[in-house]
Amino acid sequence: MSDKSINQLTAIKLEALSDLGNLDSIDQLENWRVKYLGRKGNLTNILRGISTLPVDDRKIVGTEANKLRSSLEEEYEEALSTIKSGQYDQVDSIDITLPGRKPKIGRLHPSTNMIREIVHAFNEMGFQTVEGSEIELEKYNFDMLNIPADHPARDQWDTIWLDSDSHDDLLLRTHTSPMQARVMEKNDPPVRVIVPGKCYRYEATDATHEWHFNQIEGLAVDENITFADLKGTLYEFVKKIFGPSRKVRFRCDFFPFVEPGVDMSIDWNGRWIEILGAGMVHPKVLDAVGYDTEKYTGFAFGMGPERISMLQNEITDIRNFYSNDLRFLSQF
Ligand code: PHE
User: Fold this and answer.
1) 252-309 pLDDT, tens digit each
2) In b/e form, how buried is each residue of 260-287, taking b as 16+ CB within 10 angstroms?
3) Is residue 195 annotated as part of the catalytic site, yes or no?
4) How confident is the model at residue 87, as a pLDDT?
5) Lining residues, ligand 1, CB within 6 Å
6) How far is the CA of 177 from the centre of ligand 1 (A)?
7) Cα-to-chain-centroid distance, residue 100
8) What are the domain boundaries of the chain?
9) Whose CA is nearest to atom 2 of ligand 1?
10) N or C: which end of the chain has fewer CB within 10 A?
């Protein structure tokens, strides 16, 4: 007697599982549930009939029937969630009621923006952009700029020297001025270049000093270039970047590669803030690159774009530029 019931259970199981494999909608699954687990289903019939079985068989058939029931219930739950998730993918994956959100996109670094703005201002005045390498020879960083070895002026540029088997004169450039010598060495006058680039100094950092920073060098050499050209060019630059009514002040300053040398400050809420060094190219520098010092004169200047950006954007600590903090960077 129990054999018959067990065979029936096995048949139900096989049929139920094979039917389940052909289902793909919630309606079909519901019919399946009624057929195999519903009150009028075959399995329920068998369970109901257990009490009529001989005592010995009751336990065996009861255990098997209940096992089958819970395994079919599990199959049902699993199929239900599979069908639901499938339908969700097809129909509801786009919620058109959800308000649109701005996609996150990158932006240029504030230093890059400032460099581009300054370089563009000079490009408009006929200066051509050139770039140099950050690893430089002592010769270009110092000697050709009238800063011989052991000259105390070298102290102004605390230098990071590089170890190299083939060279004992390699350094990370401390300013972009070596490009003055390199450009003139390669080109006959007239020369008019603007040189943005990274520089390095062996210096403790604080709110206004970084050990690495950008500089922008300018150089113009031709016949009849005078100090008036230097002032006119730099006035024009200040107008382009800070607006037409910004006041400017020049004061004497010393750099070995210019004579006379100046620094330029701009008026900032009643205070003079220095933004660059400049001067007429020293005849010794022209001489070192083989230019005729009787025929040619020129001016040069160098500025720090981060400092200028600090003024424009009221940034109080230069270290923000390189600390890679999105709360700072995303404000520009
Ligand atoms: N190279 C100088 C510095 O780093 C700046 C400068 C450039 C001054 C050109 C005069 C002319 O301080």
Assistant:
1) 999 999 999 999 999 988 999 999 999 999 999 999 999 999 999 999 999 999 999 9
2) ebbbbbbeeeeeeeebbbbbbbbeebbe
3) no
4) 63
5) 175, 177, 217, 255, 258, 277-279, 300-302
6) 6
7) 25
8) 2-92, 110-329
9) 302
10) N
pLDDT given for residue 38 in this prediction? 87
Among 238, 258, 278, 288, the active-site one is 258
Convert the pLDDT of each residue in 31-63 to its tens digit: 999 999 888 888 888 888 888 888 888 888 889
> Ligand 1 atom 10: the closest Cα is on which residue?
278
Residue nearest to atom 7 of ligand 1 (CA): 302
Q: How far is Cα 291 from Cα 23, in angstroms, rounded to an integer?
A: 90
CA–CA separation, 104 and 301 (whole Å): 39
Residue spans of alpha helices (H) in 39-150: 42-49, 55-87, 110-124, 138-141
Active site residue 201: yes
Contact by Cβ (8 Å): 288, 299: no
The one-letter code for the residue type at 236 is E
Q: What is the amino acid identity at position 23?
A: L
Distance from C-alpha of 101 to C-alpha of 118, rounded to nearest angstrom:
34
Query: In angstroms, what is the span from residue 151 Cα to ligand 1's centroid?
Result: 16
Tokens found for residue 127? 């200066």
| Peptide bond just before 305 cis, omega within 30 deg | no
Residues 110-329, CATH architecture: 2-Layer Sandwich (3.30)
CB 48 within 8 A of CB 65: no
Q: Compute the average pLDDT of residues 77-84.
A: 86
In the residue annotation, 215 being an active-site residue is answered as: yes
Six-digit token pair at 82?
């599979």
* Helices and strands (H and E) in the chain: how many: 11, 9
Residue to mutate, 146, 154, 257, ligand 1, most ligand atoms under 8 Å from C-beta: 257
